[in-house]
Amino acid sequence: AISCLGREYDKHQLTEIGKEWLKEMGYSKNPHLIVFHKDTDNNHVHLVSTRIDKQGKKINSDYERIRAMKAINRIVGLNENQKVSEDIKKCLNYSFKTKAQFFLQKHHDLSGELKNHFPLRLSFLLPSQY
């Protein structure tokens, strides 16, 4: 599933993101189904396909979780290196005296900024700039 935070993306936008994701993952030429739902607090699409292509060969599933994350980040325009650099800079600029304070600050930032930094999910939370 690809999910957004709340109603941030509509069914057309999520369907297009789903189509692009299928293409990047190598499934776009296989039979597939994209179904939009808004039955939860977050709009989302379910993607169903087959791992076997028309020639009877299996679609590559090596490192699929990592490739899926990289694909969705590319689709939504997130620069992973830039995001990590920004997070590190933020942590280095925070004044803390103990390891516990450091982790409390990072947890607080993630909780407070979750809606701003993580609106798209692909069966798990994925960062986005939207």
Protein model, in words:
By secondary structure, this protein is α+β, with helices and mostly antiparallel strands. The chain has one domain. It is built from 4 helices and 5 strands; from the N terminus they run E-H-E-E-H-H-H-E-E. A 5-stranded antiparallel β-sheet has the order 2-3-1-4-5. Helix 1 (11-25) packs across helix 2 (64-76). The two termini are 18 Å apart.
Summarize the entry for a quick read.
With 130 residues, this protein is an alpha+beta fold. The protein has 4 helices and 5 strands.
Q: Note the beta-strand portion.
A: 15-25%
Helix proportion range: 40-55%
Order of helices and strands: EHEEHHHEE
Q: Distance N terminus to C terminus?
A: 18 Å
Radius of gyration: 18 Å
Cα shape:
elongated
Which regions are unreliable across 5 or more consecutive residues at pLDDT < 50? 109-119, 122-130
Structural class: alpha+beta
The domain tally reads: 1
Describe the main β-sheet briefly.
5 strands, antiparallel
Q: What spatial order of strands do you see in the largest sheet? A: 2-3-1-4-5
In DSSP terms, counting alpha (H) and pi (I) runs of 4 or more, how many helices? 4
